[in-house]
Design goal:
Blueprint (H helix, E strand, L loop, with lengths): L4 E8 L3 H10 L3 E3 L9 E5 L4 E5 L7 E5 L3 H10 L6 E3 L7 E5 L5 E5 L18 E8 L3 H11 L2 E2 L9 E5 L5 E4 L8 E5 L3 H4 L2 H5 L25 H17 L3 E3 L30 E3 L19
Parallel strand pairs: 1-4, 5-8, 9-12
Antiparallel strand pairs: 1-5, 2-3, 3-4, 6-7, 7-8, 9-13, 10-11, 11-12, 14-15
């Protein structure tokens, strides 16, 4: 591949200790990282996939590659149509650059490894065999052309387990899926024993980590695996309208800054590094007193 040899999936995290623990509970083992980065950095692997955890700001998740002699390789990249939007190529710097594919997937290129290679014979994780890095692509054609120009080879479109286009390369499997199926990129693993592993008895016997709460993937209605006749959609729509009519009406009060989001507990899924952050809003029921006014009609005063 033009970007070099695949190194890791780089993920930003707020708490590297909690993130390392979460992946260790899934069966990933820590690898020996060097002192290249000034920020807290750790790497975990299962013998086939390496995940780099970075406690810093930056694009995340990113596919990171190693290209020896990176500074000398930049002109060839630009000639091929790959224009970096960030580059650190000073004489005293550790050389790195970054670019994006048409769908926004971050790609990082480094001049050398940042951790020791994983040892052979590592036991697989509870997730199974790493299959591919799957990316959402609303317009699949330009994304496919980008990765094919980079050296990947597109295969036939598949509909199992979801509709996706697989792309293969020397050291990294890729896939493109519909954003309606899954909005975010995903690590895809395969394991024929997964149904048996998810049995409730394994959780009771302590074979599954308490932090692992897998959720079923809800496929969109137009998926080939989820056909739905028109009369079923009509029934479902009428049921939703009845439910909405019976539900008490709510109004949103726009005054004041949004409430801070509540942080999830560490034992909940997903892990801290990909935790979504939502801005809160002030919500009151119809007929309730407006924010800042007590029921008696007197100002609430300063609540701080």
């Amino acid at each position: 591949m033009r970007f070099g040899r695949f190194l890791e999936v780089s993920i930003r995290t707020r708490d590297i200790g909690a993130s390392v623990l979460w992946y260790e509970q899934l069966g990933f083992g820590q690898l020996l990282a060097n002192d290249t980065w000034p920020h807290p950095y750790g790497v975990l692997g299962d013998g086939h996939l390496c995940i780099g955890l970075h406690q810093r700001e930056g694009a995340s998740p990113a596919l990171t590659f190693v290209q020896p002699g990176l500074a000398d390789h930049v002109p060839a990249l630009r000639t091929a149509g790959f224009e970096p939007h960030f580059a650190r190529l000073g004489e005293d710097d550790f050389h790195e650059l970054q670019l994006h594919d048409p769908a926004g997937q971050a790609i990082t290129m480094l001049e050398a490894r940042t951790f020791s290679p994983p040892r052979r014979g590592h036991a697989p994780s509870l997730c199974g065999w790493f299959s591919a890095w799957s990316m959402p692509a609303l317009d699949r054609e330009p994304v496919q052309q980008f990765w094919e120009h980079a050296g990947a080879v597109a295969l036939e479109l598949l509909d199992e387990p979801i509709v996706h286009l697989p792309l293969t390369s020397d050291h990294l499997g890729l896939a493109l899926h519909r954003p309606r199926t899954l909005e975010a990129p995903a690590l895809v693993f395969t394991d024929p024993e997964m149904p048996a592993l998810l049995d409730d008895g394994n959780r009771e016997k302590g074979r599954l980590p308490p932090s692992w709460e897998p959720e079923p993937l809800e496929l969109p209605i137009d998926s080939p695996r989820r056909p739905e006749p028109a009369d079923a959609r009509d029934v479902r729509g009428r049921a939703r309208r009845r439910e909405g009519a019976a539900r008490p009406r709510r109004s949103v009060h726009p005054a004041g800054p949004p409430l801070p989001s509540r942080r999830r507990a560490d034992h909940q899924f997903p892990p801290p590094e990909i935790e979504p952050v939502r801005a809160g809003v002030r919500v009151r029921r119809a007929g309730a007193a407006p924010c800042g006014v007590r029921r008696g009609g007197q100002p609430a005063g300063d609540r701080r």
